[in-house]
Amino acid sequence: MNAVHGSSVAPGLLEIDDLHVAIGGVPILRGVSLQVENGTSLGIVGESGSGKSMTLRAVTRLLPKNATVSGRVTVSGRDVLAMDAAALRRYRRSVGMVFQDPRSAVNPIHPVGSFLLERAKDSNADLRAARERAVATLRRMRISDPEARMAQYPFELSGGLLQRVMIASVLMERPALLLADEPTTALDVTTQADVLALTDELRRESGTAMIFVSHDLDLATAICDRIAVMYGGQVLEEGPAAEIASTPKHPYTRALLASRPDLDRRLPEIRVIDGAPRAASDAGPGCPFASRCPVALDRCAQLPPPATAGDHSVRCHRIAEVDAGILDAELPLRVVAS
Ligand SMILES: Nc1ncnc2c1ncn2[C@@H]1O[C@H](COP(=O)(O)OP(=O)(O)O)[C@@H](O)[C@H]1O
Ligand SMILES: [Mg+2]
Q1: Is residue 31 part of a domain?
Q2: Which tens digit of pLDDT belongs to each residue from 73-100?
Q3: Would you say residue 283 lies in a domain?
Q4: Which domain holds residue 266?
Q5: Which of 65, 69, 83, 228 holds its CA 20 to 30 A away from the CA of 15?
Q6: Where are the beta strands (DSSP E) in 201-292?
Q7: How far is CA 128 from CA 124, 287, 323, in A?
Q8: How far is the centre of ligand 1, averaged over its atoms, from the C-alpha of 50 (Å)?
Q9: Is residue 251 included in any domain, yes or no?
Q10: Is residue 50 in contact with ligand 1, taking CB distance under 6 Å?
Q11: Boundaries of each ABC transporter domain copy (predicted)?
Q12: What is the DSSP letter of 97?
């Protein structure tokens, strides 16, 4: 045991350190570092193409064959990138995964119950006990008449209901880590909020940590402990969710927050960030947001900005001026309904 730190320094559940992923030689992730502590939730947020899904795929090594990976991914101290096939299979089974389209994860010709029972049996060999457990989990997910639901086919359930069943079935196994990639994006807005609130409740009860991937910063800050903002295959800002919501620092994060539709006022128009999102593959050596940033200087496109130290970390050459409030007139500000 380390004499200085002793046992008080618990390793994080998931540590991603300087992760680079290229596909067919094209850089997709460029130095992603993230941590997730046991039982906590991290939201990964950013526009389409920023590398959110690729980060999750790298965590489970579900990458295309022509991908090259460098850096480190450890889960409970185990090196994921070094696992052999058998260890990788065991590890993947221990991670819960939920995707945008629940219909892609179920077999349409079997009733919902058979899928649930298969999962419940893994940890409970007694069929009756497994059935009770499946029904209890559905009830816990506030799915009415769970016994009848078990006999229904996926096509008989709405998208929201089926996604709730999927999430319930994954959390039933109490995984240490849940990876949820836009799990509610296909659902309508009111259903989204319900499903997420329930997911978070069950996750907390079972001590499951979560990475919640979303393009919606407001949604992510509402349910996650911490937020990482990604753009062009990099993490540009990372910190406690409440701070990211109240004091966003990176110009990109501020643009994301200002561009959201103002739901309070129900304004019809959606303000957007100027310019198109940039893929990591055509970003230069500097900050990937430089070409769209309202306060970019020459060096922003040329030199990679270092990450600031501390609990709320930002990669921006102009962070000192942002912190001093000097750039407020040039930077987007969150629109607050009066
Ligand atoms: N199989 C693939 N082959 C080549 N490029 C890919 C592949 N999958 C994703 N990409 C590229 O990687 C980048 C990041 O994609 P992704 O992680 O899916 O973004 P996000 O989930 O943030 O929308 C995008 O530019 C995308 O075009
Ligand atoms: Mg994605």
Answers
A1: no
A2: 999 999 999 999 999 999 998 999 999 8
A3: yes
A4: 240-338
A5: 65
A6: 209-214, 226-231, 234-240
A7: 9, 57, 60
A8: 8
A9: yes
A10: yes
A11: 14-257
A12: E
Ligand nearest to the CA of 56: 1
Whether residue 49 has its Cβ less than 6 Å from ligand 1: yes
Residue 48 placed within a domain = no
Instruction: Output the pLDDT for position 6.
Output: 40
- Quote the tokens at residue 130: 């497994």
Say which DSSP state 274 is in: S
Tell me how many domains the chain contains. Answer: 1
Who contacts 314 (Cβ-Cβ below 8 Å, separation ≥6)? 236, 237, 249, 250, 307, 308, 322
Counting ligands in written order, which one lies closest to the CA of residue 181? 2
Half-sphere exposure of 168 (CA within 13 A, CB side): 26
Question: DSSP string covering 150-178, please?
Answer: HTS-GGGS-HHHHHHHHHHHHHTT--SEE
pLDDT (tens digit per residue) in 219-259: 999 999 999 999 999 999 999 999 999 999 999 999 988 87
